[in-house]
């Protein structure tokens, strides 16, 4: 559809620029397809009458005609460049989309290969026990405070690029972002939880989300995301969740420190 619209735009611009206003010294003009100055007359093809005609040269305002024709040519070149650039961007986006699987998840591209960032094992840890959290399972019952954690002291997914780009394919409309994780022993804390026994619900403290930039690549939930500012060395995760529900999916990774020179 986009390519079709771009093609129509090119044709419209070309048609707009194909005709020239041949101005007369009295301010009127003829709409012509082309014209030629021949001695004491101007030979032109009339768009209105679809035929070649002649008019005395001393009646024609050539300076105004040529000035406007040059301006129209310059405008055409600008429009053509914009359309070409938009088409180039569209092709690049389609190439990106073709590289990413349609299955929900998080991916990154390494050279010519598309890699899968697997979700980590997430659990709710109270002062008494730790319960594995499944996306569709009931929330583990607890009282007081708890933490949402991902297993492992360090992520096995290590990147050296502090501006690492990811692709996230959603299965449903949810929030997502890049969260900073807090290492604690053999786990990393994603966010804190508090159980309200009166309201009988769980209050989530927002994870420490980093500023991100994002681009929606398809209408069915494929996004490209990357940090707004380079990430400091440490533990992070691409997170996907719904407000008011402890259903967070955590795709953990780490940014490695640069080796000392």
Description:
By secondary structure, the protein is α+β, with helices and mostly antiparallel strands. The chain has two domains: 2-99, SH3 type barrels; 105-255, no CATH class. The protein is 21% helix and 42% strand. It has two helices and 20 strands. Strands 7, 8, 9, 13, 14 and 15 form a six-stranded antiparallel β-sheet that branches. β2 and β3 (41-46) form a beta hairpin. α1 (2-18) packs antiparallel against α2 (62-99). Mean pLDDT is 82; it is low at 1-16.
List the helices and strands and how they pair.
Layout (H helix, E strand, L loop, with lengths): L1 H17 L1 E4 L5 E10 L2 E6 L4 E6 L5 H38 L5 E6 L2 E5 L4 E4 L4 E3 L11 E8 L6 E2 L6 E4 L5 E6 L1 E3 L2 E10 L4 E4 L3 E3 L1 E5 L5 E6 L6 E8 L7 E7 L6
Parallel strand pairs: 10-20
Antiparallel strand pairs: 1-2, 2-3, 3-4, 5-6, 5-11, 7-8, 7-9, 9-14, 11-18, 12-16, 12-19, 13-14, 14-15, 17-18, 19-20
Helix pairs in contact: 1-2
Number of helices: 2
Mean pLDDT: 82
**Which radius of gyration do the C-alpha atoms yield?**
31 Å
**What overall geometry do the principal axes of the alpha carbons give?**
rod-shaped
Number of strands: 20
What fraction strand?
35-45%
The span between the termini is 51 Å
Largest sheet data: 6 strands, antiparallel
Based on helices, strands and strand pairing, what is the structural class? alpha+beta
Q: H/E series, N to C?
A: HEEEEHEEEEEEEEEEEEEEEE
Number of domains: 2
Helix content: 10-25%
Pick out the low-confidence regions: 1-16
């Amino acid at each position: 559809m986009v390519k079709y619209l771009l093609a129509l735009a090119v044709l419209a611009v070309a048609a707009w620029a194909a005709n020239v206003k041949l101005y007369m010294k009295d301010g009127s003009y003829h709409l012509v397809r082309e014209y030629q100055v021949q001695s004491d007359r101007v030979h032109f093809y009339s768009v209105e009458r679809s035929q070649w005609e002649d008019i005395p040269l001393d009646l024609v305002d050539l300076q105004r005609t040529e000035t406007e024709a040059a301006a129209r040519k310059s405008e055409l070149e600008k429009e053509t460049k914009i359309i070409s650039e938009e088409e180039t961007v569209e092709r690049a986006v389609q190439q990106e989309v073709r590289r990413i699987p349609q299955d929900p998840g998080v991916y990154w591209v390494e050279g010519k290969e598309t890699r899968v960032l697997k979700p980590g094992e997430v659990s709710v840890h109270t002062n008494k026990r730790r319960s594995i959290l499944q996306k569709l399972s009931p929330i583990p019952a607890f009282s007081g405070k708890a933490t949402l954690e991902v297993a492992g002291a360090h992520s096995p997914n290590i990147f050296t690029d502090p501006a690492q780009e990811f692709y996230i394919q959603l299965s449903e409309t949810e929030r997502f972002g890049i969260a900073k994780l807090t290492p604690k022993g053999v786990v990393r804390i994603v966010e804190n939880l508090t159980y309200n026994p009166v309201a009988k619900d769980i209050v989530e403290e927002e994870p420490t989300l980093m500023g991100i930039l994002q681009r929606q690549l398809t209408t069915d939930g494929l996004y490209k995301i990357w940090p707004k500012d380079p990430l400091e060395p440490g533990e992070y995760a691409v997170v996907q969740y719904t407000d008011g529900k402890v259903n967070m999916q955590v795709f953990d990774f780490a940014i490695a420190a640069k080796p000392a020179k």
